[in-house]
Amino acid sequence: MAAAAWEFHLPLVPTDLLRDSGPGRYVVQDILPARELPPALTAFRAAFRAQGALAVLQHFDPVYSLLHHFQAVGIAVKEDTLELMMQVASHHSNELPAILGDSGLSHADRTAHLNTLKMNCYLLAGLVDAFEMETCRNGLLEVDPGGKNKKNRTKTSGSVWEEEREPLLRLLMQLLQLDLRQLWGGLVVEEEFVSLVTGSCYRILENPSIGLQKYRATRETVTRLLAMALNHYDHQFNATLKITQMLQHFEHVASVFAQAVSLWATEYGLKSLVGELLREIGQKCPEDSAREVSGMKGYAIFISELAEQIPALMLSNISVLLCHLDGENYMMRNAILAAMAEVLVQVLNGDQLEEAARGTRDQFLNILQAHVCDINGFVRSRVLQLFTRIVQCKALPLTQFQSVVSLAVGRLKDKSVVVVKNAIQLLAAFLSNNPFSCKLSCTDLAEPLKKEVQKLQEMRNHSRSASAPAIAPEEEWEAMLPEVRAATQQLFQPLQEEEEEVLEVEETVESTLKQITGLLRKLNYKSAARLTQKALCRFQGKEPFSGLTEENEEATILGVLKRLYTGSCPGENSEDSPHINSNPKTADIVPEEQPQTELIKQEMLVQYLQDAYNFSVKITEALSLISKMMYENCVLVVQEAIEFFVTVSQFGMPQALLGVRRMLPLIWSKEPGIKEAVLNAYRRLYLSTSGDSERARAQNLVDSVSLIMVDASLGTIQCLEEILSEFVQADEIKPAVIQLLWERFTEKSQCSELERRAAVMLLGMMARGKPEIIGSNLDVLVTVGLSDKVCEDYCLAQEVCNAISKLAGNPKPALGKNSAPFRLPQDHMLFGCLREAVSKGFAQPDGHWIPFMEAAIKLIYHLAEGAEEICAHILQVCAQQALEKLQEADGPENTDPGVSPSRVSGASSLPTFLLMHLVSLVGQVALQHVAYLEVSVSAELRRRRLLREQEKNKKHPNSSAKKQRPQSTGNETTMEEELGLVGASADDTEAELIRSICETELLDGKHLFSAVVPLVLKICNNPGLYSDSALSAAAALALGKVCMISSEFCDSHLRLLFTMMEKSTLPAVRSNLIIAAGDLAIRFPNLLEPWTSHLYARLRDPCPSARQTAALVMTHLILKDMVKVKGQVSEMAALLIDPEEAVMGVAQNFFSELSKKGNAIYNLLPDIISRLSDPDCGIEEESFHAIMRHLFSYITKDKQTESLVEKLCQRFRTARTERQYRDLSHCLTLLPLSERGLHKLQDNFDCFADKLQDPAVYSCFQTVLARFRRAGSKPETKVLAEELEQKLSASRNRGLDSAETCQEGSQSPVPESAKQKPTGSSRRQPLSTANRDEDFVTPQPRALRNHKRTQKRPPPKKAVIVFSSDEENSSEDELLGKLEEETPTKTTPITRSSVSRLR
């Protein structure tokens, strides 16, 4: 077919070219087989060389055939074809400018070149599609580990196509730059041709890897090519549809198209395309967006990024998107809100906005604030992020500050962790960018605000008084005129008699004028007009009442009234009138403008201070909320809370110090991120201090850290010590800081006593990281801190002892290290000073001596060689002083030589403080001596044994262990080998040696303790005789410490210790003994096990501090598995509602830690529920609900939930009171019921069916089903829920009917247990401290108790409902046996006089 005889029509699908669609259309004659393609393409190349670009007219079919067989053709053929077609198209593109410029171009030539252009572009577009499809397919195959050969081949093909893709696009762009309309006869280029070229661009953009940085040039070429089609080939409509379609199906193109559309709008003037695209997206149904999540995500990314690049255009078109704010797709809401934020930051920002722009800005801010409370957590989080950016860019007007801050504070209680995190970030941004002040203390702002408000009120009062004459009388008259005219017109109506009688004209004109003027001033216009009318009749011809005319009497009256009011008429007031009228018109105008300006400034100042104060109040409110978040489980929230307090501290808010202290314990966190955040916070707060010199920076650091230690607890000091030691080890503490601390301690630098004490504490903290800080100046510490002036400040001496103790280091050396511990000789100056200080202060009534003495004794045992001798000497000297005081007090009455001077029977005549010092000293020496033996001596024995073994091995390096044993005879035999001390048995023997020393030697008659311990026991046994509270507390603590020595002594005095714990009226005594009992439970667990119930009983102590101490002790014992967790743990659960926040916090921490120990809480829950729901327990229902809400929050596993549902249902069978029914049903509402849980409820329906007549029980089950339905479930499960609901309703109705029947019949006798009403008060009753002697018993050994229980078991006095734990499914007899085991059966009172009451 001749070239001019046909026309190439672009097909919709490739197969259209195979069908004859009509005369004059090109049809592919034959599809060549794949093997014939190489020679056909060679012929095409030869023809191209001979004929040029028009050769494609005869060789179109081979290339078409290659596209048809593209998968089967080799890579080389594909690459040759691509190269050939690009050469053909490029050659034709170079020829076309001359051809298009030829005005004499024939129709046949124009048709031939048009067909050539179409064919070239069609084949190039086909190659683009084929190569792109192959690239995507091979990209998916690359994940196949077995397709290595395919991968290698794909690399080669893909790399060639990636290299040729951009040149091909430039070639197509070169073609579109020509005036191609000439080939279509000057008409519009056909749409199919434009779609063919742009389709290749869109096909390339579909490749997910197009967004990579290495393809940036390709993306830019595609963008320019599409811009040319949009500008010159009317492609806008198709582009809108195609872009929206691709955004819906290809998420990765959102960023590409956002950049492209931004470029088209700014550089190519295609701003209308932005509106079309946004309108097309806005017309998507919001209901459909909930189903098409992936499509909406592409739209959301496109909108967000487009708003960042062209916010002004987004502002003019954003209205079409607002419908999606009410849709269900949260990503679209986020995108539109982000677009609004970008507009606010980049367009609607500043004070120079027009009124319409301000309205739009406020509308956008209101929309953003509304979505802070969006139903979706991601939207709430995103809005808070957007507000953070708005605040950081200073785009939030001051009028909106308070509302946004309030919303942020409210979101701190959000259930979503991400929302809370972003709320904290927003508040931190508010602080960092607040326009008010660098110091935001409420107290600092309240006083200036009060003063300025008072000043403003005075200025307003002055302004009102001064501005009164500023209004001209003429202006006032004009304002009054309508009312005066109305009153005058009423004169011509019938008058009332009363009014006629009241008004009388005065004798003279002057008095009448005054009368009329007064009426006008009183706003009595009608009477003034009537009086004027009468005066006109009476004083005719006299001014100002002359000129009355019948025709216009009303105007005459008004004229007279005006002259009188404005003061322009003659009379008494005429002299004043010029002065009055001249005020607003003369030089007084300028002075009055000045006060008005000052008033406006003052109002602005007051408003500014009020806003700053309100802002500070909100931030203070946020501080208390955020400080509680530092111990959340989420690391992100904790890190944000720490960062927030760092920011707050920089703005001088006094409450920030509480947060800075509160974050200190986080230094022990197991999360590395949290620990590092704490270190960074303190590094920024204290190490990065400002100052002109190194000395000034050191001064600021020391002052700031010292402020933390004011009134700080021991725990806070330990945390701060850990942080400072970390800084010292990292060499972040400058030498100037340490130098300043030494100067303060030695008083070379002027400072107070508190600052001097803080300097010693800081030196001790830093010495933990580098002991040489103290070691190099030990003599200075001793001579200055423990010199003759030690009696003046025992607190300083105590801190000096604590600082020196850092030299001791870890008493237990690391594995593999056998270096000797650091010890000072017995005659060192340090111990001489300590002996002198303790002995001298013993006889002085100083309240700080005991803490100093304890620190000194501890230091001696840590550092001294022969510490026991030093302490024995101190104890002997102090006891001698006490005896001397005793002899002085007794006088000549005790001169009988037969009386031993060491007796203690007359000790009551000693001063109280001296007794207190003596027993405290005994207790401290006893405790430290035990610790010295158990830790230091034990470690030293082991170290020496290992050294001997190492030396022995060095002597026989080539001998095996088997050969050494027979050779170890004669002189080489060591003591250890004779005793058989090898391996682990040596450690056991050493421990047994130390134990025997404690049991047999320390408390025998040869030791000093034996002389003073009877005094401690006498004080404890005679609380009436020794009634001083401090002495009783010291004696109780000393008793606990002495009990640590020997198990025999402890066992014989446990009854005394626990009796004092129960009966003492002094909270300090009870607290001390609780702590002592906790330590004894760790040292002698078998002895303390029978007394566990008495420890639990202290959780109901009436004193909050004692309850807190008991809770802390029990927490440590239970978590360390030193106390068996029994049903009595319900006492700890009851503390979750304690009125004291500190006690409640301990209980919460206990259960939080217990929840980490496997299924501990799950196993304990049934017993806790049974005990707390017992009416005798005294727990209110509301309190029970609060406790259960906390405990059930730890039940997170589905299996635990299902099992608890079944167990709670089973408990309905054994429950006896309505209160227990209600409590059990309430617990079911706290469980997140799953499908399997619902089946459990259905299976155990008979357990609770008869309890449903109780409205509260029935309501709880209704709540369970309603929550299950809200959670959404399968249709078959919903049927099960409906069936269960019907059964609930039917059982309830049957129960109500049977109840009515019972009421009609005779009443059956009620069981005694059911008649009993709970006698407990509404709150849990604490234990009374005034118990009887019979209440305290000494438990018998387990074997004897078990023997007696098997012989005789007393029957229960009343029916007691006791529920066993889930692991122990024991019978009722076993339960009663356990109760007997826990309850001692023999009373052993303290005093001998009560023996007669024994049974």
Defining traits:
single chain; 1399 residues; mainly alpha; 0% strand; extended; disordered C terminus
**Low-confidence regions:** 143-156, 497-501, 569-591, 892-908, 959-981, 1299-1339, 1341-1399
Rg, nearest Å: 49 Å
Overall mean pLDDT stands at: 77
Note the main sheet: none
Structural class: mainly alpha
Total beta strands: 0
End-to-end distance: 132 Å
Helix content: 55-70%
Tell the overall outline.
Answer: extended
Count of helical regions: 63
Strand content is under 5%
Short characterization:
The protein has 1399 residues and is mostly helical.
Walk me through the structure.
With 1399 residues, this protein is mainly alpha-helical. It contains 63 helices and no strands. Residues 143-156, 497-501, 569-591, 892-908, 959-981, 1299-1339 and 1341-1399 have low confidence and may be disordered. Residues 1365-1374 have a biased composition (Acidic residues). Residues 949-975, 1290-1399 are annotated as: Disordered.
Give the topology.
Layout: H1 37-51, H2 60-68, H3 75-100, H4 107-141, H5 148-176, H6 191-205, H7 216-232, H8 236-249, H9 253-267, H10 271-282, H11 286-291, H12 293-309, H13 311-317, H14 330-346, H15 355-370, H16 377-392, H17 401-410, H18 417-432, H19 442-467, H20 473-489, H21 497-502, H22 509-521, H23 525-538, H24 553-566, H25 577-582, H26 589-627, H27 635-649, H28 656-662, H29 672-687, H30 694-708, H31 714-729, H32 735-745, H33 753-769, H34 772-775, H35 778-785, H36 794-804, H37 829-842, H38 849-863, H39 867-890, H40 912-955, H41 961-967, H42 975-979, H43 984-1001, H44 1009-1021, H45 1029-1043, H46 1047-1063, H47 1067-1083, H48 1085-1088, H49 1092-1097, H50 1104-1119, H51 1130-1134, H52 1141-1154, H53 1160-1172, H54 1181-1192, H55 1198-1214, H56 1218-1229, H57 1235-1243, H58 1245-1248, H59 1255-1270, H60 1275-1304, H61 1312-1315, H62 1342-1351, H63 1372-1382
Helix pairs in contact: 1-2, 1-3, 2-4, 3-4, 3-5, 4-5, 4-6, 5-7, 6-7, 7-9, 8-10, 8-12, 9-10, 9-12, 10-13, 12-13, 12-14, 13-14, 14-15, 14-16, 16-18, 17-26, 18-27, 19-26, 20-23, 20-24, 22-23, 23-24, 26-28, 27-28, 27-29, 30-32, 31-33, 32-33, 33-36, 35-36, 36-38, 37-38, 37-39, 38-39, ...
Region (Disordered): 949-975, 1290-1399
Biased composition (Polar residues): 1300-1330, 1390-1399
InterPro entries: ARM-like (IPR011989), ARM-type_fold (IPR016024), CND1/NCAPD3 (IPR026971), Cnd1_C (IPR032682), Condensin_cplx_su1 (IPR007673), Condensin_cplx_su1_N (IPR024324)
